[in-house]
Write a structure and sequence with these properties.
Blueprint lengths: L9 E3 L5 E3 L2 H10 L4 H4 L19 E5 L3 H6 L6 E3 L5 E3 L4 E5 H21 L1 H6 L2 H19 L17 H5 L2 H6 L7 E3 L5 E7 L9 E6 L4 E6 L2 E6 L5 H5 L3 H6 L3 E2 L1 H16 L4 E9 L2 E9 L15 H12 L3 H4 E2 L4 E2 L27 H11 L1
Helix pairs in contact: 11-12
């Protein structure tokens, strides 16, 4: 069900329960809504990715998924990102279609505020409005997916299916609706997602001051930019940070993160985000030029004690950590004792400083499990 289509509109009744709109109310809402998927959600590259307007030669421009200020500051123009079909594409070429109004006015305002904060450091990024920061990272997450809509899943078959289908992109219509807050066409009654800002160490090489991870099965993104790391679970309306205690995050807040530590804490939050099983019903109240979006968490049987996270397991978290850090599962997960290696804490649980001087970026991390296995092989 499209949460913002005809089936998704609802109103809160006198007792606080949700009641469906009447046919007349629905018709009025459709006429008045600032966002309507069939009109505004582009599913091809001939319309603006943000507002959905058809792109004429006069209106067309290109939005950099990773903003130009970032590419310029960290010399990332020719650095590459690997997409799901194995294609490597320079960050400079990772562009999506946008109209000039969205690109040079609405998105430009967001980028101006965000760029100034990142250039000033982690404290200023922390002071940014959380919704603004969430919208900025949402644009990057959504932009990568939108780009994959126009690229073949199999590079040997350029006319075959694309990496992402139109139906895949339709599933992101809720995120796309909320992104209309960039254009001031949507407002929310609570913070958009769980956004965590951490401090990071700064390598000497500009190009090593950046790293990025996301996940296809959940709206999640992690970025390390200079001295600031931002990790965000989007569309959970704060459920991950409000409902879980993630030890990796607690330790990370006490550290200036080594790039390897950034990947570990990103994996921990990404795994937690993937286990969120709560569902939201969105009550959308058209209000002139914008929609007021009220997310309402649905619980099983409407019980306030119903779980909204599936059980978390050490083994699964280790698998995500291994993938994010580019390490072997057998090097970090002790199956016998069901524990996972960490570079964030000491054996006694204290946060573990990890210096770039002692462990350069790209150095192979030899874990105790790896050391024991290597020693056993040599005996």
């Amino acid at each position: 069900m499209d949460p913002f289509g005809a089936d998704g509109y609802a109103r809160v009744g006198p007792s606080g329960s949700l009641q469906p709109l009447t046919p007349k109310e629905l018709a009025d809402a459709k006429a008045a809504a600032a966002y309507w998927p069939a009109r505004d959600h582009a599913l091809d590259h001939d319309r603006c990715f943000l507002c959905g307007v058809a792109l004429t030669d006069e209106l067309r421009s290109a939005e950099h998924v990773f903003p130009q200020w970032l590419l310029r500051d960290l010399d990332l123009w020719q650095q590459t990102i690997t997409l799901l079909n194995g294609t490597t594409i320079p960050y400079a070429s990772l562009k999506i279609p946008a109209c000039k109004d969205c690109n040079t006015f609405w998105l430009s305002q967001v980028e101006s505020d965000v760029a100034a904060a990142f250039r000033a450091g982690a404290d200023e990024v922390s002071r940014l409005d959380q919704t603004l920061l969430a919208l900025w990272v949402a644009k990057i997450y959504y932009g990568i997916h939108f780009k994959e809509l126009g690229l073949p899943a199999d590079r040997r078959s350029p006319d075959g299916p694309t990496i992402l289908s139109e139906e895949d992109l339709r599933r992101l219509s809720d995120l796309h609706h909320l992104m209309q807050a960039i254009r001031r066409r949507a407002r929310f009654t609570r913070p958009l997602g769980s956004v965590i800002v951490l401090r990071a160490q700064v390598p000497g090489d500009l190009r090593l001051r950046f790293d990025y991870r996301d996940a296809r099965n959940v709206a999640f993104i992690a970025l390390r930019i200079g001295e600031t790391a931002v990790i965000a679970s989007l569309l959970d309306w704060g459920a991950v940070t409000d409902g879980l205690t993630i030890r990796s995050v607690e330790s990370a807040r006490e550290l200036q993160l080594h790039p390897a530590q950034f990947l570990e804490v990103a994996a921990a939050v990404g795994y937690a985000a993937s286990k969120f099983i709560g569902e939201f019903l969105y009550s959308v109240h058209p209000s002139g030029e914008y929609d007021i979006v009220e997310p309402i968490l649905l619980r099983d049987g409407e019980s306030p004690d119903a779980e909204v996270f599936a059980p978390l397991t050490v083994r699964e978290s280790a698998e995500v950590q291994a993938a994010f850090m580019g390490m072997s599962l057998e090097d970090i997960y002790d199956q016998e004792h069901d524990v996972v290696w960490t570079c964030l804490t000491e054996p006694d649980g204290r946060p573990a400083p990890m210096s770039l001087d002692a462990v350069p970026i790209g150095a192979e991390l030899i874990t105790p499990l790896r050391r024991m296995r290597d020693q056993g092989a040599s005996d």
